[in-house]
Amino acid sequence: MSAKEGGVDDPIASALVGGTVYERLRVERYQLFRQSIPVKLAAQGAILAGLALVIPLAMTLPSSTRALFPGGDPLTASPKILLLGAYAGAIELVAAAALCYVGYRRLRGGEIGEAEARHLLNVEDVASMVSLVTGGAAVLAVDAFFLLGHGGADAVAELLAAGGSNPFAGTPVPVTVVGVGLAAASLAVALFVGSYYFSRQLSA
């Protein structure tokens, strides 16, 4: 059976029959995230855009919640929940660099042997898992705490009564809401651009 039957392209058959070693191994192996590199970069950009939402979420907090932040100013404060946000941003940055490396190696030309292809696929799998699962969960947690803050001091008090600690308490690490939000927004734009670039180049 041909890779193109009845005028309909079969990308899996094409990869197995006429694709590169990398493409053949990618089709054959199990992957939790089988999306292409451009799609994964776009998904990372969306996650970082979600992290950038901390700025408008912080700006619209009620006054009772704002008082829980050091100095009473959520935008310039360094709440400990933002440590998780900075961690998520670092994860996405490292993972994006790894995915871009894989995409660059595929575009660079030259034969990719089986050993190198397996290495590139391992890098892609780890980067995808860490960024889309761990990083995504961390961003959801950060946004969830800020959304909780929109319930006012009473909502936060219920969290404290349940045994939690104040997520908006200060930390000596200089990680501000504005700093994390702007960095996340900038990186999100870069990843969307990278996604567009690789989608054009890898399909060429």
Q: What does this 3D model show about the protein?
A:
Keywords: Membrane, Transmembrane, Transmembrane helix. The chain crosses the membrane at residues 41-61, 81-104, 125-148, 175-198. This protein has 2 domains: 1-30, no CATH class; 33-202, no CATH class. The chain has a two-stranded antiparallel sheet. Strand 1 and strand 2 (8-9) form a beta hairpin. It has 204 residues and is mainly α. It has helices at residues 11-18, 21-28, 37-52, 54-59, 63-66, 81-107, 114-149, 153-161, 177-202, and strands at 4-5, 8-9. It contains 9 helices and 2 strands.
Provide key terms for this protein.
single chain, 204 residues, mainly alpha, 2 domains, two-stranded antiparallel ribbon, 9 helices, elongated
Summarize the structure.
This protein is mostly helical and 204 residues long. It is 69% helix and 2% strand. The protein has a two-stranded antiparallel sheet with strand order 1-2.
What topology emerges from the helices and strands here?
Blueprint: E1 4-5, E2 8-9, H1 11-18, H2 21-28, H3 37-52, H4 54-59, H5 63-66, H6 81-107, H7 114-149, H8 153-161, H9 177-202
Antiparallel strand pairs: 1-2
Helix pairs in contact: 1-2, 2-7, 3-6, 3-7, 3-9, 6-7, 6-9
